[in-house]
Amino acid sequence: MGWSSSPAGTRASFARRSAEEEIRAVAPHLELLADNGAKVMVYGEVADSIQGASSPLYKRPRFFRREQWLEYADKVTALARHTLTRGVRLAYHHHMGAYVETPSDVDRLMELVGDEVGLLFDSGHMTFAGAGESAAAVLAKHVKRVCHVHCKDVRPQVIRMARNRNWSFLEAVINGAFTVPGDGAVDFKTLLKLLHDNAYRGWLVVEAEQDPVVAPSYEYADKGYRHLRELMGRTDMSLLVKAKREGAEIVRVTPQSAGWNYVGFAAYRLAPDEEIAPRTSATDEVCIVILSGTASVKAEGQTWRELSGRSSVFEPRAPYAVYLPRGNGVTIRAHTPSEIGVASAPGKGRSPARLIEPKTMKRFARGEGLNQRFVCDILPQTEAADHLLVVEVVTPGGHSSSYPPHKHDTDNLPLESSLEETYYHRLKPAQGFAFQRVYSDDRSLDEALAVEDHDVVMVPRGYHPVVVPYGYDSYYLNVMAGPKREWHFKNDPAHEWLLQRSPTAES
């Protein structure tokens, strides 16, 4: 159920009136939703909309000044704050022909509104308005704000004609710009995985604005529903990224593949004299870790030659690492069989490129008894970087780590920071396995994962302990990044009693 900003019998609009007026206007509808247990109210701005007019698409309304955006964002936030008092979250609907239409419009609005405002993500409208940016890329940026989803497909040839012939929005719809999932060009597999990996638990609404004479409503609705069910049944939506057993690239995670905003990670196995150029963005900061072997790193006129690493990640000494403020033009050349880890995150280029020598890294034991493990800070928050934090941990067989379970998914400094994280796992002997669980307080995210040698576990949010079976030692390389480069975690209250029993057994 939802609400359009133009109540019955009026053409008044939020862009033209106060938050107080809008709150009074939505009151009956909000009460209806709340009384029926609805958790979301769809809100679509219709002020000056050309959705039902004969005007071409380019004549849609726009905010041209930052002051206009700020004023509008403040009103939307006030309305959303009010709806939450009734237990209903506002889901803002970006839409063709309206003030908030394009990816940049969505970016601007989400930047300016408060956390109270949710986002309705519409795959059809976003693809239509995308201007070259994929719907998945937009969803990945804002997925944590999404509280309602409209699943609509598009026919690209009709969209092209609509743009080239200056059709109105209504003409585009009548001519079949939209259709149901599975009948067009939208990559719903990727969208569903992004939603799943970020623990989305709201509605998926099969939708298509098209002529029912041409496309019978029930037939097409059933077609869209079946397509989504099929994808959800066969799409790998696990937080576990399995390693490749052959080739130079062992495993790779990007913000796009993970459905988050910061952390990228890749691991490589190189033969002697083999050279790679890691696939990182020119705007990424990068930390290259020589996990084992000997390799040289070359970037932007600097070369760090023959960095002699360990024979194994389980060797009790720190690795060599190289920090780069920009990822463009990096090459790594192996001189012996080598294993290389490449951590990345969006950078600002403020920190200097440099070699990080083993002697500068802090190594220490954490915990005691069966909770003891051995930590090496490779790129901690005390060392210069923009977003990246890199650390490695060795956990003996029969021990646990990242335990008691802790999380760092809430921007609540100094008590807790918001950091995405990857775990790159190694096992000794290599045929071993370990267990990692990723779960949230409300269990909307709850995955128990069996990891093998070279696998990666993605931690978008939630608690994430690791348990290692007897007989096998565990190593993992952690990469963390988020909006603020500080690591502050919160222990699971259900298990914090372990710290009272053993004060040194910290996460």
Task: Tell me what the structure shows.
The protein is α+β, with helices and mostly antiparallel strands and 507 residues long. It folds into two domains: 2-234, TIM Barrel, CATH 3.20.20.150; 240-501, Jelly Rolls, CATH 2.60.120. It has eleven helices and 33 strands. The chain has a seven-stranded antiparallel beta sheet, with no helix packed on it. A six-stranded parallel beta sheet has the order 1-2-3-4-5-8. A six-stranded antiparallel beta sheet has the order 10-11-18-13-16-19. Strand 20 and strand 21 (373-379) form a beta hairpin. Helix 1 packs parallel to helix 2 (66-84) and helix 5 (135-142) runs parallel beside helix 8. It is globular, with a radius of gyration of 25 Å.
Topology of helices and strands:
Blueprint: E1 2-4, H1 19-35, E2 40-44, H2 66-84, E3 89-93, H3 103-112, E4 118-122, H4 123-129, H5 135-142, E5 146-151, E6 153-154, H6 156-164, H7 169-174, E7 178-179, H8 188-197, E8 204-206, H9 217-234, E9 240-241, E10 249-253, H10 255-258, E11 264-270, E12 275-276, E13 284-292, E14 294-299, E15 302-308, E16 320-324, E17 331-334, E18 338-346, E19 354-356, E20 362-366, E21 373-379, E22 389-395, E23 400-401, E24 406-407, E25 409-412, E26 416-418, E27 420-428, E28 433-439, E29 446-452, E30 456-459, E31 466-467, E32 473-481, E33 490-491, H11 497-501
Helix pairs in contact: 1-2, 5-8
